[in-house]
């Protein structure tokens, strides 16, 4: 799975908003500074998240951005889908819609299983979970395997 810089920035920005006290408006400059996100890029990302209904904005000296729902109701997968679309796609198609022949017939099943595992992690982690550092037992179990911390080329 490739996580684009834009998606990484979007999740980090959403986590900054999640870490703020509920209902408090956070300035874009504050989010940009805390997460080292270029301000023009952040403004575009927040506009996308606002259009999708994940964040709210308010103009003025007391304005800024805040989550549109409690952080415990917004999943990391929700933010990713707003920015990049479906969690898994094969050349623009959903994994269940691809068809292969010959020795690759079972490859569709591999892609569907991969999406299922991504859902376990990304739908099982809310913004509140990540900002509080309280990850689900499923994610914690995956992290306990030392092999996941080693890069493979």
From TrEMBL:
Cleavable signal peptide: none
InterPro entries from the UniProt entry: TR_Rrf2-type_CS, Tscrpt_reg_Rrf2, WH-like_DNA-bd_sf, WH_DNA-bd_sf
Pfam families: Rrf2
Keywords from the named record: DNA-binding
GO terms, molecular function: DNA binding; DNA-binding transcription factor activity
A cellular component annotation (GO) from this entry: cytosol
NCBIfam families, alphabetized: rrf2_super (TIGR00738)
Stated name of the protein: Rrf2 family transcriptional regulator
């Amino acid at each position: 799975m490739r996580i684009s810089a834009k998606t990484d920035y979007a999740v980090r920005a959403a986590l900054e908003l999640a870490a703020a006290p509920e209902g408090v408006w956070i300035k874009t400059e504050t989010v940009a500074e805390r997460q080292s996100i270029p301000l023009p890029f952040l403004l575009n990302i927040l506009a996308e998240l606002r259009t999708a209904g994940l964040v709210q904005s308010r103009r003025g000296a007391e304005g800024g951005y805040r989550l549109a729902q409690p952080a415990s109701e917004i999943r990391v997968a929700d933010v990713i889908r707003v920015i990049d679309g479906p969690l898994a796609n094969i050349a623009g198609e959903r994994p269940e819609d691809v068809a292969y022949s010959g020795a690759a017939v079972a490859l569709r099943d591999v892609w569907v299983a991969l999406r299922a595992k991504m859902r376990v992690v990304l739908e099982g982690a809310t913004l509140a979970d990540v900002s509080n550092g309280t990850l689900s037992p499923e994610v914690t179990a995956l992290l306990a395997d030392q092999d996941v911390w080693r890069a493979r080329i």
